[in-house]
Amino acid sequence: MANIAVCPGSFDPVTLGHMDIIRRGANVFDEVFVVVLNNSSKKALFSVEERMDLLREVTKDMPNVKVDSFGGLLVEYAESVNAKAIIRGLRAVSDFEYEMQITSMNRVLNEKIETFFIMTNNQYSFLSSSIVKEVAKYHGNISELVPKEVERALLKKFTSNKA
């Protein structure tokens, strides 16, 4: 039986911090489903399909990574793909309290699915999709924050929105 994990997030857009967590998870698990959250309460810059396309492009060198989306309970999705684990990245202590609440609730919903926290590489500890979008919006240099494909997509998005 394959050792399957789910790595959820909004990925709006995917950053090098996300890529660090995905790559490290893919080195541990046989199969990793990178799952784009479809959160209607958040105003996303990229559509779910655009985020999935970008993720597919930047993970194409990782054969054991699959990209998908969901809009329901994460543990239900994990169960549907036979995942035994959820991978979550932690940037700082401030992330831990929120992540612990989510993990505790997931454990109540399905105690068979474990959550694994991976500490983000120190060089990405400050990085968030929100910061990247803010810098990109004002045409700042984001080349060391996101994959090249994402940098191009952000440039295109903010150039086309300048009307």
From TrEMBL:
<feature type="binding site">
    <location>
        <position position="74"/>
    </location>
    <ligand>
        <name>substrate</name>
    </ligand>
</feature>
<keyword id="KW-0067">ATP-binding</keyword>
<dbReference type="GO" id="GO:0015937">
    <property type="term" value="P:coenzyme A biosynthetic process"/>
</dbReference>
<keyword id="KW-0808">Transferase</keyword>
<feature type="domain" description="Cytidyltransferase-like">
    <location>
        <begin position="6"/>
        <end position="134"/>
    </location>
</feature>
<feature type="binding site">
    <location>
        <begin position="89"/>
        <end position="91"/>
    </location>
    <ligand>
        <name>ATP</name>
    </ligand>
</feature>
<comment type="pathway">
    <text>Cofactor biosynthesis; coenzyme A biosynthesis; CoA from (R)-pantothenate: step 4/5.</text>
</comment>
<feature type="binding site">
    <location>
        <position position="99"/>
    </location>
    <ligand>
        <name>ATP</name>
    </ligand>
</feature>
<feature type="binding site">
    <location>
        <position position="10"/>
    </location>
    <ligand>
        <name>substrate</name>
    </ligand>
</feature>
<feature type="binding site">
    <location>
        <position position="18"/>
    </location>
    <ligand>
        <name>ATP</name>
    </ligand>
</feature>
<comment type="similarity">
    <text>Belongs to the bacterial CoaD family.</text>
</comment>
<dbReference type="GO" id="GO:0004595">
    <property type="term" value="F:pantetheine-phosphate adenylyltransferase activity"/>
</dbReference>
<keyword id="KW-0548">Nucleotidyltransferase</keyword>
<feature type="binding site">
    <location>
        <position position="42"/>
    </location>
    <ligand>
        <name>substrate</name>
    </ligand>
</feature>
<feature type="site" description="Transition state stabilizer">
    <location>
        <position position="18"/>
    </location>
</feature>
<protein>
    <recommendedName>
        <fullName>Phosphopantetheine adenylyltransferase</fullName>
        <ecNumber>2.7.7.3</ecNumber>
    </recommendedName>
</protein>
<keyword id="KW-0963">Cytoplasm</keyword>
<dbReference type="InterPro" id="IPR001980">
    <property type="entry name" value="PPAT"/>
</dbReference>
<keyword id="KW-0173">Coenzyme A biosynthesis</keyword>
<dbReference type="GO" id="GO:0005737">
    <property type="term" value="C:cytoplasm"/>
</dbReference>
<comment type="subunit">
    <text>Homohexamer.</text>
</comment>
<comment type="function">
    <text>Reversibly transfers an adenylyl group from ATP to 4'-phosphopantetheine, yielding dephospho-CoA (dPCoA) and pyrophosphate.</text>
</comment>
<feature type="binding site">
    <location>
        <begin position="10"/>
        <end position="11"/>
    </location>
    <ligand>
        <name>ATP</name>
    </ligand>
</feature>
<keyword id="KW-0547">Nucleotide-binding</keyword>
<dbReference type="Pfam" id="PF01467">
    <property type="entry name" value="CTP_transf_like"/>
</dbReference>
<dbReference type="GO" id="GO:0005524">
    <property type="term" value="F:ATP binding"/>
</dbReference>
<dbReference type="InterPro" id="IPR014729">
    <property type="entry name" value="Rossmann-like_a/b/a_fold"/>
</dbReference>
<dbReference type="InterPro" id="IPR004821">
    <property type="entry name" value="Cyt_trans-like"/>
</dbReference>
<feature type="binding site">
    <location>
        <position position="88"/>
    </location>
    <ligand>
        <name>substrate</name>
    </ligand>
</feature>
<keyword id="KW-0460">Magnesium</keyword>
<feature type="binding site">
    <location>
        <begin position="124"/>
        <end position="130"/>
    </location>
    <ligand>
        <name>ATP</name>
    </ligand>
</feature>
